[in-house]
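Design job #97: recover the sequence.
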């Protein structure tokens, strides 16, 4: 399903789909005569190579300086995690290097833990940090200088990050946390009408077939995952609509 509907570059992403999320519902709907709508994947990002790293959500939602493997900034500091993950996927092979310093008090405990476990690197200078992280030293120093200058002068950076959404990188110790894009599922979904009935390409219902929740995401958004938890309210509301219509239809 990812190969067919996930778009390019998905191979470098970790896969965190729900248990049973194999695409069977999509295939069943298509075999019954339904059609698909939407494209892209549901993206977040997590500590690279760590499958149980959702506990590090503080970094996922935090303001940050993110650089590519050349040490150059690659996202806005307040980038939504889904679009940041998309940029990591398309611009840097699925990875991003998140730079923090002692000012990141909101995440110090997690960063210390991940440095001890080898998932992050810690250094007393930016030069040492770049060398440990395998980043070009001069590029990283230039990027950090530019970042700090925008904060000092109160001007947005090249990624349109507002100065108030930037955290200075000035105080040791410094950390570099490599994060990786994560795919939780495809956005492409079975096309439905307002009654949650699966429809054909021409908009006519297949008949006696409904789709709800994650199966219909492509009807609601496209290419970019809006927010964690989207599926929860979608499952509740669309499931109610589908069941109401089914009961009404059977009662006639």
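Job complete. Output follows.
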């Amino acid at each position: 399903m990812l190969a067919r509907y996930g778009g390019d570059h998905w191979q470098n992403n970790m896969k965190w789909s729900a248990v049973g999320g194999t695409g069977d519902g999509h295939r069943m709907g298509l075999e019954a005569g339904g059609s698909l709508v939407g494209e892209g994947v549901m993206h977040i990002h997590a500590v690279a190579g760590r499958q149980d790293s959702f506990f590090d959500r503080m970094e996922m939602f935090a303001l940050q300086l993110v650089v590519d493997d050349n040490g150059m900034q690659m996202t806005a500091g307040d980038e939504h995690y889904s679009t940041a993950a998309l940029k990591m996927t398309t611009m840097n092979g699925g990875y991003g290097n998140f730079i923090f310093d002692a000012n990141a008090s909101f995440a110090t405990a997690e960063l210390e833990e991940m440095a001890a476990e080898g998932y992050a690197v810690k250094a007393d200078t930016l030069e040492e940090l770049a060398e440990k992280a395998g980043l070009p030293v001069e590029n990283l120093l230039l990027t950090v200088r530019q970042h700090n200058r925008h904060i000092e002068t109160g001007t947005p950076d090249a990624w349109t990050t507002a100065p108030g959404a930037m955290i200075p990188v000035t105080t040791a110790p410094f950390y570099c946390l490599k994060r990786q894009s994560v795919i939780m599922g495809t956005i492409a979904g079975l096309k439905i009408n307002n009654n949650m009935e699966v429809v054909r390409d021409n908009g006519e219902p297949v008949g006696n077939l409904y789709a709800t929740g994650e199966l219909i995401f492509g009807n609601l958004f496209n290419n970019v995952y809006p927010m964690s938890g989207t599926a929860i309210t979608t499952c509740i509301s669309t499931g109610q609509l589908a069941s109401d219509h089914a009961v009404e239809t059977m009662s006639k």
